[in-house]
Write a structure and sequence with these properties.
two-stranded antiparallel sheet, mainly alpha, 6% strand, single chain
Length: 187
């Protein structure tokens, strides 16, 4: 099974979900597409790692609410004890930052201002999500045996990463804006 399959099982440990909800929850790890998730859920169901309840809806397509089975939990428990593969990172923005010396200063400023705005928006959303989790679960969030502990610590990690990305963008922007001021003085 691939990492996405284990990620789906991990999400289902916390609560039963639709495929759409699973896509939303996976945001903490990576951007999986519906076209990846639904066939994999079918395979997991075929292999008896998940089961689902069919829910008929009026005015909307019917939906399936997936739950992890004991067999799925057992598989996930075995997988957790294995060392993880090295992380894979791919970010087009970082390639542009690496080659920024080829761009004019205004383009560089624009790139970093857009990145800064994106991460400020992500940070605000993450703070709201963490606040809701803290309100809903309280001390359960700090209980390492709670099924919400893992989600909480990952959201805190993402929050720290987003804060650091903002700090880095501001740091780079200070260099770029200094260059603009220097060029104005010299002209």
């Amino acid at each position: 099974m691939n990492s996405l399959g284990y990620a789906l099982l991990s999400m289902l440990v916390r609560k039963s979900c639709t495929g759409y909800e699973l896509k939303q929850l996976l945001e903490v790890f990576w951007n999986a597409k519906h076209s990846q998730i639904y066939p994999l859920l079918s395979k997991l169901e075929e292999d008896e790692f998940v089961t689902y309840v069919h829910v008929e809806q009026t005015g909307k397509p019917d939906k399936k609410i997936y739950s992890i089975t004991d067999k799925g939990r057992s598989l996930l428990q075995k997988w957790i004890s294995n060392p993880p593969a090295p992380p894979v990172a791919r970010d087009e923005f970082l390639i542009k930052a690496y080659a920024i010396s080829l761009a004019d200063v205004e383009t560089g400023i624009s790139l970093f201002q857009e990145r800064l705005a994106l991460y400020e928006e992500k940070l605000a959303k993450r703070k709201m999500e963490i606040g809701l989790m803290e309100k809903e679960y309280g001390e359960k969030l700090e209980d390492i045996k709670s099924n919400v502990f893992g989600r909480y610590i990952l959201f805190k990690r993402k929050l720290l990463q987003e804060q650091e990305e903002i700090n880095w963008c501001k740091w780079v922007l200070s260099y770029l804006e200094k260059e603009v001021k220097t060029n104005r003085i010299m002209s």
